[in-house]
Amino acid sequence: MKKNLDAAGLWLQPLAVLQGTAVACVLLLFTSLGLAVVVYFSHWQAAPRLLSSLAHLAVFLGAVWAGKKCTRKAWVHGVLVGVVAFVLLGLFGSVEQSVLTWLWWKGMLRMALLAMVGGMVGGLFKSG
User: Fold this and answer.
1) Whole-angstrom Cα distance, residue 67 to residue 21?
2) Could you give the CA distance from residue 66 to residue 116 in angstroms, rounded to a whole number?
3) In degrees rounded to 5, what are phi and psi of residue 2?
4) Is 93 helix (H, G, I), strand (E, B) or coil?
5) How many CB atoms within 10 Å of residue 76?
6) pLDDT at 5
7) pLDDT tens per residue across span 58-117
8) Percentages helix, strand, coil for the chain, rounded to the nearest 5?
9) Pair 61, 27: CB distance under 8 Å
10) 73 exposed, middle or buried (CB, 10 Å; 0-12, 13-18, 19+)?
11) How many helices (H) and strands (E) does the chain have?
């Protein structure tokens, strides 16, 4: 009955997921501010592909953080960071996009898979 429990409690640590999501959001905020300054003072315009890549990188690093902070199942924590960050970015980005479209689910799957790898990488760097 207690196969999902260990000595510390539940195997899922919501605080690690919250920290990973916060790290992803902070990285994305600082990246956005840096790009805004560069675009303001130059004639360069950021391509949508670059912005998407930076968002994916921020979520990957947030998943690494969550994987490093959790005690077990780092890949699950990474996936949760990816899903939560994708939903948050979707809410901030465009409210009109429906969750019933294939494009939305494809983006969610891509973000979750990338974040899963980030969680596993973070799990490899755990101390102890």
Assistant:
1) 11
2) 10
3) -105, 35
4) helix
5) 17
6) 47
7) 999 999 999 999 988 999 999 999 999 999 988 877 666 676 788 888 999 999 999 999
8) 75, 5, 25
9) yes
10) middle
11) 4, 2
